[in-house]
Amino acid sequence: MIKSSTRSDIIRWQQMWDFILSISILCTLSKTVAAWQVDLAPTTLIHRVEPDSEHRFLGNTTVPDYFKILLSDGDSLIIGARNAVHNISLTSLRENRKIVWHSSAMDKHSCGSKSKSLEECQNFIRVLVKKNDNELIVCGTNAYKPKCRTYRTSGESSYEQVGPEESGVAKCPYDPKHNNTAIYTDGKLYTGTVVDFTAREPLVFSAPLRTEQHDSQVLNDPDFVSSYDYGENVYFFFRETAVEHINCGKARYSRVARVCKNDRGGGSFLRPDSFTSFFKTRLNCSIPGEFPFFFDEIQSTSEPGLGGYKASLNYNERTDMIYAVFSTPQNSITGSAVCAFKFSDIIDSFNGQFKEQASPMSNWLPVDLADTPSPHPAKCVNDSKLISDRTLNFIRRHTLMDKAVPAYGGGPLLLQTSFVSRFTQIAIDWQVPAASEDNLNKVKYYDVMFVGTDDGKVLKVINVGDKEIKPVIIEEIQVFDSKTTIVNLKVYRKPSEGIEKLVIVAEDEIKTIPLHRCHLRKTCGECVALRDPYCSWTENRCENSMEHAQNVVTGKHPACGTSEPPIVVEEDNILPTHIPRQPANVDPTIPNHIDAVPPVGGPLTGASQSAPCSKQYSVAEMAAATVVCIVLSIVIGFFIGYRASLWRNKRSNDPPTYAMDKCLGTPKMQNRYNTDPQLNSETQHYFSPEVQKQLNVVLNLTPKTQNLPNGGVESKVHKVKKVYL
Fold this sequence. Notes:
This protein is α+β, with helices and mostly antiparallel strands. It is built from 8 helices and 41 strands. It is globular, with a radius of gyration of 34 Å.
């Protein structure tokens, strides 16, 4: 039995412990807050791009198109859509050619019999590769019965089909919501998709080879993001459920896998139709520390290029690399990050140790190099048919590498934690020259990142740090409305005509905007404070130049005077208009937009900052105010809890009293723990016989027909044994 005073002491100690723990957490966060880039705010908020500087493309105005960039071919951009392929000009966004491909009535009927809606039973074009200069391979979902066709350019404005339709199984997904990737290189089509209607069998495929079937150690519920040809390998980027973490709970990791382009399968009965060179490793995008915080789910990648995560004075210091967008799980803290990876680090990981699980109950551990066959199984060989059975057995059981690929620079280049939006896409303008802040005769080169979000925004970002990562958000541009997800981004340049554009693709609209807006800055201070590598102050105007007054690192320059210019905010225009669509019989699950909460204020949400009577607070001030409020709330809560526990302890020691129930006319015992027999016997006269019959849980009712008339009952009140848990 635990006394009331003892319980109240325990409650007070627990409250004291909660208070101490909360203070410890706040102190820990104060030490790590810099790693989360909490003071990061855009230099410019643009609510609407100048109408004269943007172009726009709309396909079907009655039903959603579900656009997806499938190929960039010179000055043309080829878009997969609903029952169509659009070839549009990157210069004007006008349509050059179009392929219309509807599913047959029979295929639609078959799709409907599988409990699919009318909107799902369309032909969504999801694979398009260039076979040669004049031919395209096009694959669509075709009402959940994938098909492929070959088209040839005909004249200047049309395509014509070449040959019959072919099965698109293992080349194109059944469902347009399924993520897939495809690339055509060295005369072969490589795809990452699913091979069945239920999407339970994923694979990497290049006829006649595929990854091992029904093996979770090879592919475990993957979502493919992209694929690229690099050197003698084809690389696949995807996220999947991690088999090495399954003993500790379910988690999804980001991966990069590769296969050799000259792989022909095994020569014996082992893996004759399977890749002998499929291996994968983890991509590490995390905030470093004793206990790193991981952004585990890759969402998109840029195209590979030559660049660097930090600015350099030497153009030859570039390296082959790729940028990628990562996020936390949907049911976790809402966070997004941008990480960069060098291809040399990816190659080093595949040349290292393998990871294995000796038994189903064992941990995943690295394989000793002495137990690894020679030559290294992950290296491409001239003829895979000559690989020994011992090596093939090793390959079958070891597809995962031990060493994860580290982020270039040691951590994320850009972070965002927000309840409003997540990063979705990224495009890079590689090595943009800018005037050096320390010597006007030198030029520094920056990788300019354009990051799309699921609330219709594009962030323009560079890293100005030298020894550490210091991102600068140059612009935050509201391209679409806040409920529109950006699904593709692409940088387009045509130097001969002075064209520099960013192509932004939503599921039913495409726009192009300039890469910079230097001419909007009217003073030297505003031009330099923009910290844009494209812009510099020259000849009394701000223009696209890499000479004269500029300082991307600090945003200040002696030529502009000593006064610090204010943050530039563009908010004199309304949000861009968006043509509403009213599709008929549309299933809202195909594909879904992510509804974002409208902006509610703060420097990152695009809220108005021009109210004359409202004071603007910095992020640091708001953070300090939040911490003070939390501490005060904890102290007040502790005091109230302490007083309540004293009151409760006093009440528990008071003698029992009784009150009449106004509804039943019966007393209610206020101290239900008292079991005094005398007290219980004294209270029997308060209860009527009808009420006594209802209290059979407490009363022992024994019929005494021989002593009481009319079969009356004798009431006896017994003690109730108390049980404390």
